[in-house]
Each structure stands twice: as C-alpha cells, then as structure tokens.
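Batch job 17 of 40 flagged for manual review because the log was empty.
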Amino acid sequence: MTPGKRFLTSEEIRSLSGRSDLWGAWLVAHCWGLILGALAVFALWPNPLTFLLAFTIIGSRQLGLAILMHEAAHNALFRSRALNEFAGEWLCGRPIIADLPEYRHYHLTHHRYTQTDRDPDLRLSRPFPTTRASLRRKLIRDITGQTGLKQRAQQIMFALKMAGEVEGTPSSQDLAQAFSGPVIGRAIVANAVVFALFWAVTGAWWAWLALWILPLLTWFQLVLRIRNIAEHGAVEFSDDPLRNTRTTLANPLERLFLAPYRVNYHLEHHLVMHVPAHNLPRLHRLMLDKGHGARMQTARGYLDVLRAASSRPA
C-alpha cells in the first residue's frame, strides 16, 4: 500500500498526481538552460570568479539532471512512458554517466524497504550521526574527487565484468566490448554531444573537461552526499513514513546549489512516490493542514541537517 494512503484520501492523491508534458519539458529545458547560461557567462567574462560560479552551478545542475532522471524513473516527469524513458535516459542520465533502468530497479527497492535491513541505501544513512571529524573527511574526499574517481572506476570495472571479463588483465577485446556496451557506450555518445556543445559555447576544447567532468567528479559528489544525508541521515530506523525520512526546508540559495527541483521534500515523495516534484510543496502544505506537522521529520535548512548528522561526540 502507498504510505500516503494512511494520511490522504484517494481523491487528494489523484489531485496531486497529474503529470504534465509541458512541466516536464520546462524542467529539462530549465536545467540545461542554467548549465549553458553559466557556461556562457564564463565564456563572455572569463575570470576566476565566473569560472567558480559556472563550476558550482553546473555541478549543482548535474544533481538536477540526476533528480529529473529520478522523476522519469517514477514515470512522473512526463505523461507518457516513452517520453520519460527518452528524457530520463538521454537528456538526464547518460550525460552524467548514469543508467536509468539500473537506477529504477535500485531506487524502487529503496522505496519498498526504506530504512530496513533490506534497504540498498542503508549504507548511506547508517553511519549517521557521526562525528564532525568523520563528516569532514567524507566531504573532503568528495570535493577533492576521490569519491568520484572511485565510483567511475567501479562503473568501468562493472562494464568490463558485464562484457565477460575473466581472471587476469582485461584484453583489448574486453575493453572494446565494455566501452561499446549499452551503459558506457551510451554515456560516451551523450558526452560527445556535451563536449561539442561546450566547445561551441566557449570556443575552448577543454571546457568539457574543466566545466563538466571536473564538477561531476567533485562538486556533484559533494552536493549529492549532502542531499543523501538530508534525506535519510540521522532519522529513525523504523517503518514510520513520517519519521524514517526527512523534509528539509530550503531557501533560494539552497535550492540553487543543494536542492534543485523540490528534492528537499523527500518525506512527501516517500508518502506518494509518483507525485510530480512541482506538486510536492502542495502535498507538504496538505499534510500540515491535516495536523501531521508535529510528527513529520523536518529540518529548517541544510546547516541544521549537517549539525544533526555530525552530532556524535568524538
């Protein structure tokens, strides 16, 4: 049963669940528009400040693409399944080297077993709360690219394994099969398009490396971890949908850099996972109007989340 049915009527759920192709197209266009806009600002006024601005905005919108892929995984980005599959895979997932079908399987398992021993995301939430020193080490590994490089290496090794790698050094045929396969091969195709787009906007061949790959390995990993902590870090290990996940109230700067496309309303998403992101604030207000606010796990902002996540004494 959908957890939200414990708190909402079927009519209320239906009123919130309507999908819109216009909304889906606007969200995808908005995400890529911010990416290309930040790139254009740097191209017009190249200096360290505009580079840093473009770097962080692009890394945050890479998280935005991941969130829109998540919407498509729930068939909530567009009305038709075909549009969800195309946009989720080619416009959102592949450019950030993510696989929509694999992610959908993983993520729906997380919804089914949230904060239980069968939750595949438990490894992300179980360590919290931790100490400040431990959290600092994790964030440093993210921003310096250690986490990103490790994950990309794991993806490549998985692709090699799927291509039929045996004991010993991978052969050139194994490598060719891995990088022409559906996961890595499609990511290469998508990134070839991004490479050409970045070169066309900036006139610099290295723009893709400096302002797409580098943010993907660093800033994206940092904001991804903060988002993961906010959603399930330092909450109850129980089956109570109002206590085993968290909604974080985000200000405009936090929405720009940490919480694109209403991803901060995570408790509401777990209540009714097929509600489109733009309707989650309405669902939040409805839950408050029904008197559930006192029980809902809510944070006032991402600094509060990080304080709670690092509250264990050294």
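Reviewer: the log was empty due to a logging misconfiguration, but the result itself is present. The radius of gyration is 20 Å. Unflagging and moving on to job 18.
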